[in-house]
């Protein structure tokens, strides 16, 4: 059971003491992703075939186990210059909103011109059935662009089939490497070495576990991962695309 502590203090203290290198995103060598997509001779795309997002404290700014009610009230505002839409939903007194990088990533994917061929899905170990219900309700309310919710975009990718792995009740578990990702691979037919995964990793190092356990035998490569201990920002989003492109380049 999680202790009712102040989240920001927990994250900052534990990160500083145990993983000081995780306080900052290490600058990476610049890679022209568009150029790689045009010139690469490999069958593997320079953008991931599947981009997987954790929800709590990664895609959005709240932890669903802390929410007390199904979201109902919406907050309208500017959707990153794309028009006015739902930028927040209230669960009781708690407002749930997408992180800046999350909105940018989802909007770029919705446009379909930069990351052509990429699909998205979710891998969240929501603590309780009610936490899962809150999360799913929020996904159906928060908008990417006016008139298109996060859930709409997810369903567009998969012809209205729900491939997302949300929760930890059987057949899921708290270990995403053992349950969420094998099920994602089965549901989507996409190889591990064609996936990119973002996770806050504040309650467990899901990125390292997934990267270590979910690999392909023929290439020895697995899921490219990026930790987002303070939520998915634009910098982490760009880093993830670069990290995946670097993995593709190493497989030539």
Describe this structure in a few short sentences.
With 252 residues, the protein is an alpha/beta fold.
Topology:
Elements: H1 7-18, H2 33-39, E1 50-53, E2 73-78, E3 84-91, E4 94-96, H3 100-111, E5 119-124, H4 129-139, E6 143-145, E7 148-149, H5 150-157, E8 165-166, H6 180-188, E9 195-199, H7 206-213, E10 224-227, H8 234-250
Parallel strand pairs: 1-5, 1-9, 5-8, 9-10
Antiparallel strand pairs: 2-3, 3-4, 6-7
Helix pairs in contact: 3-8
Core attributes:
Rossmann fold
What this model shows, in words?
It contains 8 helices and 10 strands. By secondary structure, the protein is of the alpha/beta class. The protein has a single domain, classed as 3-Layer(aba) Sandwich (Rossmann fold), CATH 3.40.50. It has a 5-stranded parallel sheet with strand order 8-5-1-9-10, sandwiched between helices. Strands 2-3-4 form a 3-stranded antiparallel sheet, with no helix packed on it. Helix 3 crosses helix 8. The longest helix is centred in the C-terminal third of the chain and has 17 residues. The N terminus is likely disordered.
């Amino acid at each position: 059971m999680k202790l009712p502590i102040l989240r920001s203090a927990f994250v900052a203290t534990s990160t500083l003491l145990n993983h000081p290198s995780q306080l900052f995103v290490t600058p990476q060598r610049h890679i022209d992703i568009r150029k790689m997509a045009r010139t690469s001779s490999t069958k593997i795309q320079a953008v991931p075939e599947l981009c997987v997002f954790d929800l709590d404290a990664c895609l959005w700014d709240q932890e669903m186990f802390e929410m007390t009610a199904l979201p109902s009230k919406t907050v309208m505002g500017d959707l990153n210059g794309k028009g006015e839409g739902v930028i927040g939903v209230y669960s009781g007194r708690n407002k749930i909103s997408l992180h800046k990088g999350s909105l940018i990533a989802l909007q770029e994917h919705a446009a379909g011109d930069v990351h052509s061929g990429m699909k998205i899905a979710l891998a969240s170990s929501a603590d309780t059935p009610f936490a899962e219900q809150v999360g799913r309700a929020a996904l159906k309310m928060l908008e990417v662009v006016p008139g298109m919710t996060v859930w709409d975009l997810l369903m567009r990718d998969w012809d209205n089939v729900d491939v997302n792995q949300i929760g930890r009740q059987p057949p899921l578990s708290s270990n995403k490497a053992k349950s969420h990702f094998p099920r994602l691979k089965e549901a989507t037919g996409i190889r591990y070495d064609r996936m990119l995964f973002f996770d806050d990793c504040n309650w467990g190092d899901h990125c390292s576990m997934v990267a270590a356990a979910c690999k392909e035998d023929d290439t020895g490569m697995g899921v490219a991962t990026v930790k987002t201990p303070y939520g998915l920002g634009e910098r982490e989003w760009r880093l993830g695309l670069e990290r995946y492109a670097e993995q593709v380049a190493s497989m030539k």
